[in-house]
């Protein structure tokens, strides 16, 4: 398992239908990405020291079940891979799965680039980070890589 994050919903995240508003699914998935970054060495100290960070460049969210106002969500994050590039890898593909009471409520698949904020361009992951991501790599879930509407 790559990483798991558990959060209780906040009242301000609830929409006019009494469910989690769609923007907050992405916020919660973002928290899960942050937790994974911390786990593999892309934490705040790394970002400050190197000027590098992970930038999401593409995402696909699927809303499968409504999430009620009083829910506690569990988000499991998979590193999908290993990807191409070996030691020169600059990108990471992640899949987040949000569950409520064991029921899959939403997924997010994303592509992220390791970016040096100074020149604003993608750069290879440091060896230790690349190794940490590779150690967590799992096969892609069946929904990964699908286009909208398929």
Automatic annotation (TrEMBL):
Domain of life: Bacteria
One Pfam family named in its UniProt record: 4HBT_2
Family matches, as InterPro entries: 4-hydroxybenzoyl-CoA_TE, HotDog_dom_sf
Protein name: Thioesterase family protein
Organism: Nocardiopsis tropica
Lineage: Bacteria, Bacillati, Actinomycetota, Actinomycetes, Streptosporangiales
